[in-house]
Each structure stands twice: as structure tokens, then as C-alpha cells.
Amino acid sequence: MLNKLVNWARIKSPWILHFNCGACNACDIEVLDALTPRYDLERFGVLLKATPRHADVMVACGPVTRQVASRMVRIYNQMADPKFVVAVGTCASTGGVFNGCYNVLGGVDKIIPVSAYIPGCPVRPEAVIDGVVKLLSSLKQS
Amino acid sequence: MSKITIPLGPQHPALKEPGNFMLVLEGEQIVGATVRLGYNHRGIEKACEDRSFIQNLYLIERVCGICSHSHTTCFCMATEDAAKIEVPKRAQAIRVLVGELERVHSHLLWLGVAGHEIGFDTLFMYAWKDREQVLDCLEMISGNRVHYALNTIGGVRRDITLEQKAEILKRMDILEERTQYYIQLATQEPTVLARARGVGHLPTEEAKKRGAVGPTARASNVPFDVRKDDPYLIYNELDFKVITSDSCDVFGRLVVRVFELLESFKLIRQVLNNLPEGPISVKVPRKLPAGEGVGHYEAPRGEDIHYVRTNGTEKPERVKVRAPTLANFSSIAYMLEGGYLADVPIVIAAIDPCFSCTDRALSISTSTEGGYSLSWEDLRKMGIEFYRSRGLDFSRIAK
Amino acid sequence: MTEGRTEEVIKEKLEGRFGTNLSNWTIQRKGRLYVELPREVLVEVVQFAKEELGFDHLSTITGLDAGEHLELIYHLFAKGMLLNLKTKLPLSDPKVKTITQLFPGAEPYERELEDMLGATVEGLPPGRHYPLPEDFPPGQHPLRKGWKVSDAYPQEV
Question: Residue C126 — φ and ψ, nearest 5°?
Fold first, then answer.
């Protein structure tokens, strides 16, 4: 019973931690753009948080460079359960155009579990909204 | 007073980019600062050697999502020099058009981010909303809001139609009006001035000595602008001013960028109203003759330089990219020292750092001698509180 | 920075001072000058270019593996002209002196030469790696020709 309540609360307004793991910034600015007046993700209750402890969803952009990898795992571990990771963009999904580069691990799922992938180079803000909504509705079903 | 060292990062203020700074504090003042780079190193230069020139265009574009056109144009110019390819006038004009549109989007993006750093979130929302006008223009011409892929070796891939021209001109008028508001905000609003004046001081001689570039240098009265100092594409035929300020601080950097917006609108109108006729590209062989070339470009953040060596095959022998933020590095430490902890986010944001461009690295230290470490967000909030307790509150600005 | 300088004038002034040390002059086009010089005179030439010829901005330093040797190119800029100074370093002894006393901003560019090519820049103050991660296997220099990811991380490929 309590579980359902907590779940419902999470679905209503997911708090997001945005993490750049070696990205070129294109996806980062489109994610931030989703919060600005034209797209306005905040009307769905989605809020950008700065600390992992308050966040439900980690939104990760970038192909994961070596330096960032251990930091990313640490931040993931600091998030409270239940937590979800959304790989935003082609780089976060598969390494994208940087696949094969020596300093790049090639995708967020190489180091932490990913709940949703949003393709695009960069993603469009609409795709970010779509991805978040899809993640939320899949949570509702579980 | 005892000294404590605090590490900051890796989430950098201006766009949640990975960055790291070690600050040595005495009380509230910073007495030492070291900047460490490294998180964004992806190994692009090495990867370039394994890809054809056209494939490299797509890779180089992604050095940075904000100034992607700057990088591809610079790369094309270096390659075209190396292979002695002459680009048709119309293509050069279109490159300038997109370059200036990019400058507008980048400066508006910066304006919003700077606002966010000092607690003026309304400015962030306004600037980014206005920025959508430019993104619409770019999407109209190229099909994408970010990463427009307009360049090819020897020219551009898409032409500008008359309808597009009319639409862009219309939006430039809208933006120019909005920019008047930003100029008034930047130069007259007391709360903004209080956060920006006297902060992040970089005297002219230091800026020159340390090789500062872009608006950071121009705000310290160093009139360095590659469009005037080493004209490329059709800039030597266009009428525009190099904006400088002798303020040598964050205020100067703000003023320079806001007035540069006006110059960009001027340039965009000139280009659109005088688009030369002719082809938009020349046919270029897959294998380029051996040679070398340097591309020199004024990106929104400053001087961008690419070196390309060709070797007679379809892949480059060497591609070197030095993006603008790296040149501004040694200036940051100077600007932070002697300043207050509360000013750190805006000082760093004011050079418009693009760690993606630069890094291609950053490292983070978790050593906490002295007992604490800070995240950017903590520091940003601290800075806002510090000034709010002294009467600077952006929520009081009505519009 | 004097007005009315041309590539020829710069070449003449450099030749006047350094004469036979300079070779392989190329005036590729307006504003692009390339010349080769031995590493022994590098710092002096850079200083002369900066103090006497107005090249007060170092844009960057390119390093590359040219097979038989390492090649470094120092890109100096003054209004209207990029002066590209090339020098060769033998693979057996890839040392070069620092120019940070003339251009403090050269530090990351010189560190990059050390990390990526295995050059040694004498006089560079100690500091962290740039741009490679601190824990990158030592002795691995990605920009050397023939270097592969598996050289540093054999377990990954």
C-alpha cells in the first residue's frame, strides 16, 4: 500500500539529476531547453535537482570518457532507490560518433544500468519529453 | 587566518559540464586557484586520422554542440588551404551567415546561463526563449536546431531560398528589439551591475600576456577579433565593429557580448541582402593532394585554430584542434585570485567556458584538507545568498 | 605591430638575424608563412618574433609523429599573419625547451606534447597530465602513429 503511494508520488513529479559524462553539450542544452518556456517540462512537475540524493532520475548525456566513469558510478550509488537512468542521445546510448575513440567507454550502459534510451544527435526537446513520459508510464504499470 | 583548500566540481556551473578547480581560501577570499582540465577528452584528433575528410566533418562538428559550425568551418578552411581548393563566394557568404547566427545563439545561451549563475533565473528563461528564434532559423536552413552539418569540403551543402531569407530577416528584427532590453539590463540595472562590476578583474597587460581570446580579451580592451585581424570568408567585405570594453571585469564581458549581438544582426542582414550568385560548392576529389593548412576563425568564444596536414590519401595525416576556451585558461586563475568565493561561479561563467571544446579533459580531486568540498550548485547558491543578504535580490526586478 | 608588413618583410628580418638556421621557407598564401629551424634556436627565434616582429600571440603548438622524427609547429600570430615555426625532434631524444617564460599560455599546449607524443619539454613546471587522465598507463602516447587503444588497454579490445 505504502509502496503504491510512494510510486504514485514519484510518477507525479520526477526529480532529475542532469549529468554530463563527456558530452559535446548539444544534448545538454536541448535537455535544459526542455525546461524553458517553449517546451516547459516543469509543468509536468519535472524538476532539475543538483544533488543525487534528491533525484529520482539521472539524465545522462555523453559517451562516457574514462575520467568521468568512476565519478558517474559514485553519483549513481548516492541516489536513493528506486532510481532510474535515462541515456539521452546517441552518444549516451552507444558511444555515437565517438565509438572506438581511445578515451571513451561507449555508452552509459557500460557502467550503470539504463532504464530508457532517447536517440538523437542531439535529441530534440520533444524527444526528451516523450522519453520522460514513456518512462513514467512504464513505472505506472509496474 | 588559516588557509583551507576546497575542490570544486566536476559539475561546472555554466552547463553542468565537467570541470575542476582547486581553490585555496583565507576566510572568504581566494588566495590561490588552480584549474584542472580533463573530463571531456575523447580522443578526437586521433580518431580523425582514421576517417575520411567527409566523415571528419561529422566528428569535428561534435567537438562542441554550441559552436559546431565554427569548428567545421575552421576545419574546412584548413583542409581547403592544404589542398588548394577555392570555395565559391556564395558558399563563403552562407558560411558567414550561419556563423553569425551561431554567434547570436551562443551569446544568448551565455546570457541565460550567466543570469542563472547570479540568481536571475528570469533572465535565463527570457534569453533562452528568445534564442528559440535563432534555433528556428537554423532549423529552417539546415534541418536541425543543433549540429547543422551545413559545411562540406569545398563549400556548403544547402542553399538559402528567398522565403528563408525573408523569415530570417523578420526574426532578426524581433531579436534586435529584445536585445535592446538586454542592453538596458546589462548597462543600467543596479542589481546586475553590483554582481558584475569589479568582479573577475583581468587587466589588459595580463590578458595579452596570458593569450586571452574572444570576448574575454575584448572586455579587457584587447581588440583581438580574427574576423578583423586575419579576415576569412567574406569578412573583409562586410561592415561591422569590433566591440571592446575597458572595464576588464565581468561587466565588460557582459557588455561586449550583448553589443556583439547587434553587430551580428548587422552582419546577417548584410549577407542576406547581398548574397552573391553562383554555385554553393566545388567538386573535390576524395584523395586530397599532400599539403598543410591552418584554419583561423572567430568562434563565439574566441579564436579557434585548426591545423590540417594532408598526405595524398583520403584521410588526413594530422588534425589539430585548439578551441578558444583553452586559450583563456591561464586567465581564469588570475581572475579568481583575490576575489570572493561567492563570485566564483559568475567569474568562471563569464569567460563562457566550453569544456567540451577545451578538453578534449578534466580531473577531479576529492582531497578535502580543511574539511569540506563543494558542488557547483552549492557554490552558486552560496553566492546568491551572500549577495541577497547584502540587498541584491533579482526577484525584485519586475519585467 | 607595424602596418604594411608583408610576408617578404618578415622573412627578410628573420633571415637577417638567423640566416642559415632557417630553411624551407613557404609563403603559402597571404598571411601564411612556414619555416623550418633547428630546436637549438627555437626559443631565440620565438623571442625575436615576439619582441621585434610583433608576434605577441601564440595560437597553439601542433605536434605530430612524422615517422622518422617528431615534428612540432609553433603557430605565432600578429595582425594579418600566422607565422608557423617548424622544428624536428629525433625519436631517440625528443626534447625541446619550454617557451612558457615568453608565453605563459603555452603550458597546456606543451603538456599535450608530453602526454600525446612522448616529447619532453625542458623547463616545464611540474603539474598534472593534460589532456590524458591521471591513471592512463604511463609510456603510452596516443598520437604516435601505429598506437592503438589495445596498447594501453589490452583487456578491452
Answer: -65, 150
The stretch B182-190 carries a mean pLDDT of: 87
Rounded distance between C-alpha atoms, residue B80 and residue B294, angstroms: 9
- If you write DSSP's letter for every residue of B172-236 in order, what string do you get? HHHHHHHHHHHHHHHHH-HHHHHHHTTSS---HHHHHHTT--HHHHHTTT----HHHHS--TTGG
Q: What is the CATH number of the domain that holds A48?
A: 3.40.50.12280
Measured N-to-C along each axis, helices B162-188 and B250-273 cross at an angle, to the nearest 10 degrees, of 160
pLDDT digits (tens, 9 = 90+) for B72-85: 999 999 999 999 99
- Please compute the mean of the pLDDT values over residues A107-133 and round it to a whole number: 90
| Rounded (10°) CA dihedral B123, B135, B155, B327 | 20
Q: Is B7 on the interface with C (CB under 8 A)?
A: no
The string of pLDDT tens digits covering residues B130-165 is: 999 999 999 999 999 989 999 999 999 999 999 999
CATH code assigned to B44-325: 1.10.645.10
Report the side by side order of strands in the sheet with C57-65.
C23-29, C32-36, C81-90, C69-78, C57-65
Are residues C80 and B230, on separate chains, in Cβ contact within 8 Å? yes
CA distance to partner chain A, nearest, from residue B41 (Å)? 7
Chain B residues whose CB is inside 8 A of the A41 CB are none
B287: DSSP letter: S
CA distances from C3 to B18, B143, C33 (A): 43, 44, 17
Determine what percent of chain B is predicted with pLDDT higher than 70: 86
State whether residue A100 is helix, strand or coil: coil
B390–A contact, CB cutoff 8 A:
no
The domain spanning residue C103 has which CATH number? 3.30.460.80
Contacts for B381 with CB less than 8 Å, ≥ 6 apart:
none
Q: Closest by alpha carbon to B343, among B191, B121, B118?
A: B118
Q: In angstroms, rounded to a whole number, what is the distance separating the alpha carbons of residues C46 and C77? A: 11
H or E element that contains B366: none
pLDDT, one tens digit per residue, over A58-102 is: 889 989 888 788 888 988 998 888 889 999 999 999 988 888 888
Residue C61 bridge partners (DSSP): C74
Structural domain boundaries enclosing A119:
15-141
Number of separate domains in chain C: 1
Put simply, whether the predicted model's pTM sits higher than 0.80 gets the answer yes
Please determine, for the modelled complex, whether the ipTM score is greater than 0.90. Answer: yes
